[in-house]
Amino acid sequence: MHDDGHFDEKVAATYDDDGMSAPEVVDPAVDLLAKLAGDGRVLEFAIGTGRLALPLARRGVQVEGIELSRPMVARLRAKKGGAEIPVAIGDMATTRVAGRFSLVYLVFNTINNLTSQDAQVACFGNAAAHLERGGYFLIEVGVPPLQRLPVGETILAFDHSETHWGLDEFDVVSQNFSSHHIWLRNGRFERFSVPFRYAWPAEFDLMARLAGLTLQHRWSGWKKEPFHAGQRQAHLRLAEGRRLGGVFRGPLNPT
């Protein structure tokens, strides 16, 4: 890994090509983020290429960001309005920016890019340190699909096509896993792997409590769909990659 994490120029160049920037994906997220922000300032951890920050800024929300990857920020800067969004280069678990925010958010499973429990705990603490009284910290992260993992096996396929194969390799003791991508491009195979650490909803709730935050809502999507495992069908959808939205709130009054 280099100074830009695992998101170098090659990754940044194709990062926006996966369909996650489509209006039907972005608009519900921006609707909810704008509502949570109210009239306050907003800070995005791992702002990336500005997939959510730019449309949020176009709605008049004052957005800032923290991002480890310089190539990703360069892509943000090249987009209309991207140069006006302040971005601090650094690790979202430790990097501080000036001022307080009504909302800090971290989306698209990026909490998992922090590959130790200590780093994830530090990320919650860093978010809390940036919040104004009563501010919100929102994370979007997938539910670990371990119920699909056969006994004794460590690998699950998450994508397969004529040109791309995706495999997750799990260590259920450390809660670390690696996503392996294999592409067929121009008649040649290319491989790319990224390490992650998964955590369960209850573990994230405890991280929030350690940071002085309290769980306010948990949803399975940006339209506030209920998060539950009471029905087999819903449970299987969650296990196959539906995301949970955890909204944590800071204290309303000084202690």
SSE topology:
Layout: H1 9-14, H2 23-37, E1 42-45, H3 53-58, E2 63-67, H4 70-78, E3 87-89, E4 101-106, H5 117-130, E5 131-142, E6 155-160, E7 164-171, E8 176-185, E9 188-197, H6 201-210, E10 214-219, H7 232-239, E11 243-249
Parallel strand pairs: 1-2, 1-4, 2-3, 4-5
Antiparallel strand pairs: 5-11, 6-7, 7-8, 8-9, 10-11
Helix pairs in contact: 5-6
Key descriptive features of the protein:
255 residues, alpha/beta, Rossmann fold, four-stranded antiparallel β-sheet, 7 helices, 11 strands, 30% strand, globular
Structure summary:
This protein is α/β, with parallel strands linked by helices and 255 residues long.
3D architecture notes:
This protein has 255 residues and is of the alpha/beta class. 27% of the residues lie in helices and 30% in strands. It is built from 7 helices and 11 strands. Helix 5 (117-130) crosses helix 6.
